[in-house]
Amino acid sequence: MGKQAVKPARHLAIAVDIGTTTLAASLVDRAMERRLAFCVKANPQRSCGADVISRLQAAGTSEETFRSLCSSLNQAIEEMAAELLHSGGGAWKDISCIALAGNPAMEHFALGLQVDSLACLPFRPLFTEGQQATTLRLGWKRDLDAYLFPLPGGFVGGDLIAFLYGVSHRKPHASSLPPSCPDTLYLDLGTNGEIALETGDTVWATSAAAGPAFEGGNLACGMPALPGAIDRVNLEQDRISTTTISGAPPAGICGSGVLSAVSGMLDSGILDVTGRIRHPREIDSNLANRVVDLGSTRAVVISRDSRRTTYLSQEDIRHVQLAKAAIRAGMEVLFQRSGIPARQVQKVVLTGSFGAVLDPHWLKSIGILTENMVSNAIFIREGALYGAERSLMDPRGFEVIEELARRVRVIPLSGSPVFEKHFLEQMNFPAEHPSV
């Protein structure tokens, strides 16, 4: 009898971060513990609204709209999986598992679950533990094992759990970040801004509806962190200079570009502490030439060439203020509930779909971080995606993730007078800017 052919091991896996604004996915080799390919694209659900609440409301208008939200999301993820295999040199038969992490609404849409319970009080998901499913259930053409991360609360989702897991399992050579320590603040600054405070054995967590401004959404010239997005803006010596992702011609501005621009505009006196764009005659530098009137609104020109003009309008600045006030107010609620003052935070770990870099000083400038937090802050690219990748490389990954999720205590912000008080207090930018 001849030798039986050895069936090749299914050594590849796909990790997915289902972001409200941006979808990110990677192909990983589980045995070699390395990333083979990466891709990112805009979440197609944005046609039904830029934020989670808008999409939940749209899903409730008709069964057809709900099904469209589910199918468009899953189709986009399946297309990304195919793109990853093509660029990474893999085949469908080599895939052993798909790990997906997202906020509760995104994971419900992925599974085709009704979202009514997320759209009204008490905002509870239909499941809290991680879900073992198949890609057929997600509407894919192929039948592969899939794992969706646990959902601790109504707006605290699997993406936060993936982020926390990835930080605690980060290899020493991959980052200067030490193992998880007490009194650590975690910020995932996306449309559904998730915040966690680790104090001893407890992880206090909440979610603030920041809106998509930090990811370049809902802005006049905003875009996701894709090639051509302005990802850094420098205001120096009366000049504005920019860089773009992949060095492509400017096509818009993404989150890191927005934050760096607003920080620079505050330092240079283009903005006052209330967020008002000053009139050119109030600006004592050549930067006054960058302030223009666009119909009934004022704007600051960031970049201009023969193809397009990229700018931040007064309304854009207001979106940034609303986002930063929501995040900082959420932080204050966690500090109060945990009994940990802000000055006691020993480490801050940041992530989000900004681009390649996020300077913590930008977040201090706009009023999210304090001075002591800046000195202890580290930015991790694709935090949730990295956690999903690590879970696929660890034989006990999913088990450890479930244990981690059980440590999380969710603090809802809806209807909280403490949150509302801090939100109003945090609307203005800090007053300490050298040129103001």
Describe this structure in words.
- By secondary structure, the chain is an alpha/beta fold.
- Among the domains are: 12-176, Domain of unknown function (DUF4445) (Nucleotidyltransferase, domain 5, 2-Layer Sandwich); 216-314, no CATH class.
- The chain is 31% helix and 24% strand.
- The protein is built from 12 helices and 18 strands.
- It has helices at residues 52-59, 63-88, 104-111, 116-119, 158-168, 255-267, 314-338, 360-366, 371-375, 383-393, 397-406, 417-425, and strands at 12-18, 22-29, 34-42, 95-102, 131-134, 145-148, 184-188, 192-199, 202-209, 229-236, 239-244, 252-253, 291-294, 297-304, 309-313, 347-351, 377-379, 408-410.
- Strands 3-2-1-4-6-5 form a 6-stranded mixed β-sheet, with helices on both faces. The chain has a 6-stranded mixed β-sheet with strand order 17-16-7-8-9-18, sandwiched between helices. A 3-stranded mixed β-sheet has the order 11-10-12.
- A hairpin with a 2-residue loop joins strand 13 (291-294) and strand 14.
- Helix 5 crosses helix 10 (383-393), helix 5 (158-168) packs across helix 11 (397-406) and helix 6 (255-267) packs across helix 8.
- The termini are far apart.
- The model is unreliable at 1-8 and 172-179 (pLDDT under 50).
Number of helices: 12
**CATH level 3 topology of the domain at 12-176:** Nucleotidyltransferase, domain 5
Structure class:
alpha/beta
The level of helicity is: 25-40%
Largest sheet: 6 strands, mixed
CATH superfamily of the domain at 12-176: Domain of unknown function (DUF4445)
User: What value does the Rg take, in angstroms?
Assistant: 22 Å
Shape: globular
Series of secondary-structure elements, N-terminal to C-terminal: EEEHHEHHEEHEEEEEEHEEEHEHHEHHEH
Terminal Cα span = 86 Å
Mean pLDDT reading: 91
Low-confidence regions:
1-8, 172-179
Number of strands: 18
Strand content: 15-25%
Name the strands of the widest sheet in spatial order: 3-2-1-4-6-5
- Please report the first level of CATH classification, the CATH class of the domain at 12-176: Alpha Beta
